[in-house]
Amino acid sequence: MSIMNSFLLFCVEEVRYALDVGAVKRIVRAAEINFLPDAPDFVRGLINVAGDIIPVIDMRQRLGLPGREMELSDRFILTNVAGKPIALLVDRVEGVVELPALSHSVTNVKTKVQDTTATAVTVEGNIVLIQPTETFISEDTLLQLVNIGSEDIGE
After folding, report:
1. With contact defined as beta carbons under 8 Å apart, do 88 and 17 qualify?
2. Taking the complete model, does pTM exceed 0.85, yes or no?
């Protein structure tokens, strides 16, 4: 009997990605985003979730893809990086899958995200890229966002 791990599948421009379910706090429908001046290009702005001000990472731009207007199917995946809350704006969320901890069909591939390596696996015949949330945003950028966000809302 092999050990199984749970992953949340999501899509950005028809490419499937997966995050460890343990890193996911909540999934919410994409809503109005408040512009954040002086933020990196891939930071879409700030959202208010139950009183928490959270920076939004536009995964399209973070992955080097052209931006687009939000659609009804877009979602925010709420997670934490270095103990700070962030929202990942993705095209759609497909659900949770169970994958074996040690799969013979695993391949490591280089990605544009901070020049890191993702793990490519096959799920129901489709390639899925698994990448830790920490690779989506550097700790320095996250601290910059927290400081900018606090200044902008008068804290």
Report:
1. no
2. no
